[in-house]
Design a protein that fits this description.
The protein is α/β, with parallel strands linked by helices. The strands form 6 sheets. The chain has a 12-stranded mixed β-sheet. A hairpin with a 2-residue loop joins strand 38 (302-305) and strand 39. It comes from Winogradskyella damuponensis.
């Protein structure tokens, strides 16, 4: 699939500087650009490469002015990184523009299937499922009874949506993700064992939620586990029962949130973060990677460590952490001197 500089500029509402008819058919890093490739420049430290790149087209910011001759055709946009991302999204949409129903697959007779849909081979669609327009359900996916899927949502191969769960518009469920498995609910018994507590709720994903590969979101014991609009979850994350995550919060890979914790809006949570249950995390909170959260967190806090505490305090304390052997040695020497003088 080939695109000209003029076509790309039209998509991005940009301006061509160079040959408007030059064509590209692949993407590249600016330092690895070759003929026929499209790249971008947004980080200034990569500026030297624009004078040596062989990429046919480079997306740059509108204020970029070359100081030396260049061979690449430029497309100037307000934000090169955002423009390149928009182009990737456009390309991905064209590339994955599948439609129709492949066989074999199972679709319950109670399901009203829209005309503009894609259902891949070996997919299972249960009873009373509601599917919106332009939905794509890839092969080997499971959609349980009474599930609702909003317009333009995608369930990639092997995605599992358990019964009664709700997906909003433009949600993305990546391969191996599981939405609505039982929450971890067990009560200890007198004989030292455990009895299962039925998990009768569901999971609700609002609009524009992305769920990474291998991520699991448990159904609520009662009520709903709720992921609000615009939340982005990386791969291999565990969200426990009755958790609520506020809109536009992002969580990186291998993090875990225990049951009934409420996370606010616009939070940024790093990889391998553990958050205990029944907590309230405020809005605009930032948690550094590998931190452990065991207390309520106020709005705008920045945390690090396990157990976590203020980021600036952690940095100051780290100076002492790494010098502990020297400090212990110094104290031992001082104690010997004191004992020798007594």
């Amino acid at each position: 699939m080939k695109f000209t500089a003029e076509q790309i500029a039209g998509i991005l509402e940009g301006t061509v500087v160079g040959d408007p008819n030059i064509e590209v058919f692949k993407l590249s890093k600016i330092e690895e650009g070759t003929q026929g490739s499209l790249t971008f420049l947004s980080n200034l430290k990569y500026t030297p490469y624009i004078y040596t790149t062989e990429a046919s087209i480079t997306i740059v910011n509108t204020d970029f002015k070359p100081e030396k001759p260049i061979s690449t055709t430029l497309i100037k946009v307000e934000d090169a990184y955002e423009g390149f991302s928009k182009l990737l999204e456009y390309y991905d949409r064209i590339k994955s523009n599948k439609s129709g129903i492949e066989q074999p697959c199972f679709i319950s007779e109670s399901v009203k299937v829209p005309d503009n849909i894609y259902i891949g081979a070996f997919a299972y669609i249960g009873n009373n499922v509601e599917i919106g327009d332009n939905v794509k359900i890839y092969p080997h996916s499971f959609i349980g009874d009474n599930v609702k899927i909003g317009d333009n949502s995608i369930v990639y191969p092997g995605g599992k949506i358990y019964s009664d769960c709700i997906l909003g518009n433009s949600c993305v469920i990546n391969s191996g993700a599981i939405i609505g498995a039982d929450g971890f609910g067990f009560a200890p018994t007198k004989d030292g064992g455990y009895t299962k507590i039925p998990q009768t709720g569901n999971v609700i994903l609002e609009d524009y939620v992305d769920v990474g590969a291998g991520t699991t979101i448990d159904r609520a014991t009662i009520g709903s586990t709720i992921i609000r609009t615009g939340v982005k979850l990386d791969n291999q994350i565990q969200i426990a029962h009755n958790v609520e995550i506020g809109k536009n919060t992002v969580i990186a890979a291998q993090s875990g949130v225990a049951g009934s914790t409420k996370i606010g809006e616009h939070c940024q949570i790093g990889g391998q973060v553990g958050i205990a249950g029944h907590l309230i995390i405020g809005n605009n909170v930032k948690v550094q990677a590998q931190s452990g959260i065991g207390r309520n967190v106020k709005d705008n806090e920045v945390l690090q460590g396990s157990p976590s505490f203020g980021y600036s305090d952690w940095n100051k304390s780290y100076v002492y952490f790494k010098n502990l052997p020297k400090l212990v040695k110094t104290i031992n020497e001082l104690e010997k001197k004191v004992d020798g003088n007594n």
